[in-house]
Every structure is written in C-alpha cells, then in structure tokens.
Amino acid sequence: MTIKAAPVARRSIPALIFRQSVVLLNPEFIVNSYKRVLWVLALVSTVTLECHSQVVAPTSLPTCLIQYSVHWVVWPLGSSRLMLYNSDQTYVEIDSYWTNAIYTGPLGSGTNATRGGKFTYTVDLVNPSHARIVYDGGGGSLGYDDLYFTAATSGSPFSPSEIYYDGASAAFTLYPRQATNGACNVSNLCRLAAGGTGTCGFVVQSGGPRWVLLRAIGASLGNFGVSPAVSSPSFTLYDSTQTVQGTSSVWSFDPNLVSGYQTVFSLVGAFPLSSRSDEGALLVPLNPGAYTAQFRAGSAGKMLFEAYILPF
C-alpha cells in the first residue's frame, strides 16, 4: 500500500503581505500600538523633566538649618525633622515629629528623642545634584540623609527612582545662616488682669522666610526678682490678614523637645527657662511681613513676651 503525504499548504508572498496588512489595519492593533508609543514618550518626557529639574549640590554644607518632611505612600505615616548644622561639622537635631493617619488624638502623632554629634558631607561624583550627610551619633532614618537638589536651597531626600515614597510631600528645605539686618529681638513686659489678654507685634524683613522663636514667660521671671508672675502663659500668632500661624505649647512638657528648645535659646542669646516650668514657646518659619501675638495666662500677674528672629 502506498501512503501519500498530504499536500502542505503554501501561502504566496502576496497573501502574506495581505494578511499582515489586515493586522496592521486592525483598529485594536492600532489603538494598542498608539498606547505603547504614548507610554514610551511619557516615560522619556518624565525622565527628561526629572533630569532638567535638578541643580548642582553645594560643594560644602554651609552653617544652616535643614527641615526634612516625608510622607509614605504605602503606610499612612509621616515625619518631619529640623536639624542644625554648624561650621565645625557638628549637628544638633532640634526636633523630630511623626504622624500616623490611622489614629486620632494622642496616638496619631508624637515625637522622637533628638540626637547630636559630628557629620560628614559629600557630593556624589556621578550625580552632582546628589549629596549625602552621614552622622556619627545617629540621626536620619538610617544614620544619614540624602539630598537631591532641585533648587539652590531645596529638593527631595529621595531620588526620583525611589517610588516607595510620595514625592509630592517628601522634601527638604535648607535655610543658610544670614546676616541680620535691623532688630532681631522684640520683648514686652506687661501686667495681665485675671482673664485678660495682651498683644505684641513684630516684623520679619524681606529676604526670604526666617525662623522665629516666640516665648511667653511667667515663672522664670522669679529668677530676676520679678513678681507676681502669671501662671501658664500662652499665645496665638497671627499674620497681617489675621490668619493663625501657630500656637504656643509648654516648652518643658515633652522631654524629647526640651534639649532642642535649649539649643535654640542659646543660639539667639535668650536666657534659660526654669526647669519644668509651664511657659509657652513656639519655633516657626515665617515669610516676610507683619505679625501679631495675642497672649494670655492662667492667673493675674506679670508676663514677658519675646520674639527672636533667628539668623536662618
């Protein structure tokens, strides 16, 4: 018996061309191809924008304050820190806060113990917009902080490739030491009646935001023979539009913040406050403009309000 192989179907070249032409003209194929092209163009544009938005990091870190803030995408957590860097390569962590959006009330926010020590600052030879600060006494989340500069005094603590973080709220701002022009301290000693309020104003001059220390002093006046002093002095800060810019908190209430406050007191030449006193303080960055503080106390007596404009 003879077995014959079945004939193999062969397509002519014109048939193949016709079939490929049908595929290319298929609307679904065209749409998908168009999407792929747009995705590639978007990726290239994004990379290009990120590259062009970066600036060269300073070759050395000037005496400055740097404020860091981070918000994580996967977890509803956030953190912020204020660091002081000195010309002798020492640093002091002024404050360190954390937040957790899952909880409300006291469980939703808190502070961390602050640290200090020596640091080294180096600029990345491959990416000149990237610098790293390494701490010998702890500090930062991993013992170091990365600075990716997108402007002369600001940027992100994370590179564009680190997608674990919400880049829109991960940032650092560098406040270099500035020459002080005009008055840098305003104080007002007054006598408050029971339930009464007082007012004190000051101006932040032009030249960019400045950090300002505000204090409401009662018990510590006894160290200078001033009496009777008010109890529990506090204040609310307003700008020229009467928008609240901050409220005081008891400077000694949180042990994690006491050393940071003491560092700032010494920095501006303010006298120390009595240990565990119930006096109010606020450290806040303010834009140029006029500000008013309205202060009050828990009892009648004498009270001192102070405003110090830091050289940062």
Can you tell me about this structure?
- With 312 residues, this protein is of the alpha+beta class.
- It has two domains: 64-176; 185-309, Jelly Rolls.
- It is 17% helix and 39% strand.
- The chain contains three helices and 18 strands.
- The radius of gyration is 30 Å and the shape is globular.
Q: What coarse outline follows from CA principal-axis ratios?
A: globular
Q: What fold name goes in the CATH topology slot of the largest domain?
A: Jelly Rolls
Order of helices and strands: HHEEEEEEEEEEEEEEEHEEE
What's the main sheet like? Answer: 8 strands, antiparallel, barrel
Assembly state of the chains shown: single chain
What count of helical segments does DSSP give? 3
Q: How many domains, in number, for the residues?
A: 2
Compute the average pLDDT.
82
Residue share in β-strands: 35-45%
CATH architecture of the largest domain: Sandwich
Q: Biggest sheet, strands in spatial order?
A: 1-2-3-5-6-7-8-9
Q: Name the CATH class of the largest domain.
A: Mainly Beta
Helix content: 10-25%
Please state the structural category.
alpha+beta
Distance between the termini: 102 Å
Rg, nearest Å = 30 Å
Instruction: Give the low-pLDDT segments.
Output: 1-52
Give the tally of β-strands: 18
